[in-house]
Amino acid sequence: DAWEELAEIAALAGQRDAIGRAAERVHTLSMGEGAPRSRAITMTVMASDLPAAVARARAQVARRPDHAVTLYQAHRALTQAGLADEAAALLPAIGASDLPPDTRAMAELRQACAAGRVAEAQLAFSRIEREGDRSTIWQARQLLADPRANDTLRPLDRPESISTLAEFLIHPTLDARDFPQLTARLAREGVTLPPGVPMPGRCPAAG
Q1: pTM of the model
Q2: Distance CA 115, CA 203 (A)
Q3: DSSP secondary structure string, 4-40?
Q4: What are the CA-CA distances from residue 168 to residues 9, 49, 82 (Å)?
Q5: 202 φ, ψ (degrees, to nearest 5)
Q6: Taking the C-alpha atoms of 168, 174, 175 and 180 in order, what is their torsion angle to the nearest 10 degrees?
Q7: pLDDT one-digit tens code per residue, 97-137
């Protein structure tokens, strides 16, 4: 848990390398304990280190092939790395799991985008839009290169909810410059973040 907290602090400072180091420790320690933490895969994705994310995903799936959250996070890493066929093998178990409906739909959207099936991705998004929370809808819109993506988070760019918005800085796809209140808060604290990066694994329509 301490390493995961460190990753969140590193995100606030724009230190992706530190997120990656924390992810490595979470993965190594949890694997050594015999209870791999899928959060290590997530953190590695957030560190923008897709080769390491794929390696950790494969190691954890081999250890916990029936663990739904591990499969889901591994699927995210594989689709973002462009390994659509390998990711597809995980999708049936994710779909049959007791993960929330919007989470399962998100995996379907990622798979459809990775395979270039835009119409299927749009169908999955329609379910996410009905059932998903703010974070899931924001990520889904990014995958579809929907210009409304940042509008999903815009209501949080207020002094009273700026800390909630700041939690999204763990995502390398968030560009703080698109949110004036967040940018001002970071500037007051002397923090300069790198620009956001495009969502890996986007649908072909994203260009």
Answers
A1: 0.92
A2: 8
A3: HHHHHHHHHTT-HHHHHHHHHHHHHHHHHTT---THH
A4: 12, 18, 24
A5: -65, 160
A6: -40
A7: 999 999 999 999 999 999 999 999 999 999 999 999 999 99
